[in-house]
Amino acid sequence: MQLWLIPVFPLAGFLLNGILGRRFSKTVINAIAIGSVLLSFVWVLKTLAALGELNTAHVERYYTWIASGDFHVGMDFSVDRLTAIMLLVVTGIGSLIHIYSIGYMAHEEGYYRFFAYLNLFMFFMLILVLGANYLVLFIGWEGVGLCSYLLIGFYFTKKFATDAGNKAFIVNRIGDFGFSLAMFLIVVNFGTLDFGTVFAGAAAKPEATLTAIAFLLLVGACGKSAQIPLYVWLPDAMAGPTPVSALIHAATMVTAGVYMVARSAAIYTHAPAALEAVAIIGLLTAFFAATIGLLQNDIKKVFAYSTVSQLGYMFLGAGVGAFSAGIYHLVTHAFFKALLFLGAGSVIHALGGEQDLRNMGGLRKKIPWTFWTVLCAAVAIAGVPPFAGFYSKDAILLAADRHAPWMYWVAVITAGMTAFYVFRAIFLAFFGAYRGKAHPHESPFVMIGPLVVLAALSLAGGYLFKVPEYLSPLFPPLAEGADLGPMVISVAVGLAGIALAWLFYVARPGLPESLAANCSGLYKLIYNKYFVDEIYDAAVVNPVVAGSREVLWKGVDAALIDGTVNGAGTVSKGVGGLLQRLQSGNIRSYAVWVLLGSVLVLVAMGLAAGGIR
Amino acid sequence: MTGVPLSWYLILSAVLFALGVSGFLFRRNIITVFMSIELMLNAVNLSFITFSYQLKQVNGHIYSFFVMVVAAAEAAVGLAIILTVFRNRSTLNIDDVSTMKN
User: Fold this and answer.
1) Does a structural domain hold residue B12?
2) Which residues of A touch B21 (CB under 8 A)?
3) What is the reported pTM?
4) Which of A278, A523, B46, B72 is the most buried (most CB within 10 A)?
């Protein structure tokens, strides 16, 4: 079926734009970048249409990459229903965001570089979802991490952007370390990394082994999907251009961890302790990130913490055994969160780079298209029926309720906060009086078009795409029957969140300040994001920096290594200085040396010969 | 080996060699130094031939031919160098040709 063509199109786009883009006009760059992704999307559609039902995985083996004794790793791609969903999300949303970027990046430096990186990202992301074994998945996994780094630090003349890129890359290394260890354990215990073989053999392995593997995989997933304790890189990643935040840090790459956990469902279902850990980490992340999102003033930061929180929901879904609900939320989240970010990008574009909610306001009339599309995303994420977020969130909440009621209640409170912070951002940005200085202007059609498509998907996507039913051959079925009670409660809490935001930021604008003054301790704690960055700095970063500077640099490098090398140099110089005296420049003195030398040799030989006799 | 005994040849060779060495050590004219080197080479050749003749073996003859070839080549190169040095510096004093020092 030529699966390999799917990632190769964006790769070709990357090579063309990356190598020759400097000479191309913007039209040519657009045609290559967007054309390659669209081709990839079309090829996905064609492939999926040809593969039909996909009740079993369709595997294509291209060549053996590593062969060592009995251990083989192939460059293999496979498509099953989970991959099909991921392929559609990645190429579909990816195409929309590429188109949007034409408008957003129009006035930026490094236009070709941006699109080259974006195409490279698409290539690696497609490798990630197509891989038929852990190692191929890992190539994509590392590749998207690289592209994430490159695109976060896209504005490389700004210190905070390069710092954010470094932070993302380094924090992800911790997760990848866990992932690598998990792969080693799989190789040791299963003798292969192939998904089919590993999952088929998982049931027969001891639970302790599977738990260890599952926990290590979870570490990897926590890094990539920004879960506690490794979530700190994602809010900083907003230093990149907004389309990047939408594509990589909301819709696709950060969901790779969820995808990987769902892909490894066969391992997780036999490791209940690890699965419980997935649920708890997801729940904690959802809750705490949502509280931080309540008080952020940067519009992109609000959505960044929202992303962390929603990823937590996906983990919660997977952790309570409802893998298909987690993937369902992944899909709907890709719609509405991409839309929220692109809408935020449209606002930022309209205001000439302003990101602070306090300098916005009253934009509803000035950029109506952006307002209405973002509103669609907001009702979707708030879980208002019958929009996309309602379906997926409800599926997760229901599964959580069946698993453990306390998880349900925490998740419901989080849902209320989600509705609150999203509508807070909307009310602050679009309602009231305009507080900024720039002159807002509506974005061009290339930016509005993708917004409208995503808005339609956010509104109807949950109803149109019944992901859990489609995934039913792969994962344990969701709980049967709709419990009306939990559903009504969660919807009511969501609506209450919206109402509260309305009260705070439209009806009674003075209320938040007085509330903040009354609970100043809690307010400061949350406003400063629980001081997590500061704690990490004090506990990890500073000791490492100090250790590197005092011990490794000044001790080992400067004293030991440099000392040895410089010492060797000094000794040679001293010896050379002594020998230099022989080089008198007087040729006859050289001759004397030669003569003396040959006489010495003769005497020595004579003595030696005499000795032998 | 009738008439002239072996030791005479060897003594002559040693005397020639010593002359070469002392000429090399004490003369300052480059051409003289050069000729002293040739003298040493031929002194060695003489002893080669002597032993070759004495021992009825052809090896010494062959070696002496090699030495002659090398000496001829060396003469060509050496004289070319001397010529260039003289053109550039208008001197043949060996002590003045010491630019490489320092």
Assistant:
1) yes
2) 595
3) 0.79
4) A278
Q: How far apart are CA A383 and CA A371, in angstroms?
A: 19
The model's pLDDT over A405-428, given as tens digits with 9 standing for 90+, comes to 899 999 999 999 999 999 999 998
Tokens read off for A506: 């439209």
Least confident of A412-421, A537-546, B62-71: A537-546
Q: Is residue B102 part of a domain?
A: no
Examine the pLDDT at A281 and tell me if it is beyond 60: yes
- A33 in helix, strand or coil? helix
Angle between helices A445-464 and A81-104 (to 10 degrees): 160
Residues contacting A13, CB < 8 A, separation 6+: A32, A33, A35, A36, A37, A115, A116, A119
Are A465 and A256 a contacting pair, CB within 8 Å?
A: no
Q: How far is B95 from chain A (nearest CA, A)?
A: 6
* Coil vs helix vs strand at A110: coil
DSSP classification of residue A148: H
A494 burial type by CB count under 10 A (0-12 exposed, 13-18 middle, 19+ buried) = buried
**Is B21 within 8 Å of A587 when comparing Cβ atoms?**
no
* Mean pLDDT for all residues in chain A: 90
Contacts of A590 in chain B (CB under 8 A): none
Q: What is the CATH number of the domain that holds B77?
A: 1.10.287.3510
Question: For A127-146, what is the mean pLDDT?
Answer: 94
Per-domain boundaries in chain A:
280-524, 528-564
Domain annotation covers residue B100: no
Contact yes or no for A585 and B100 at CB 8 A = yes
- Give the closest-approach CA distance of A110 to chain B in angstroms: 54
CB-based contact A370:A426 (threshold 8 Å): no
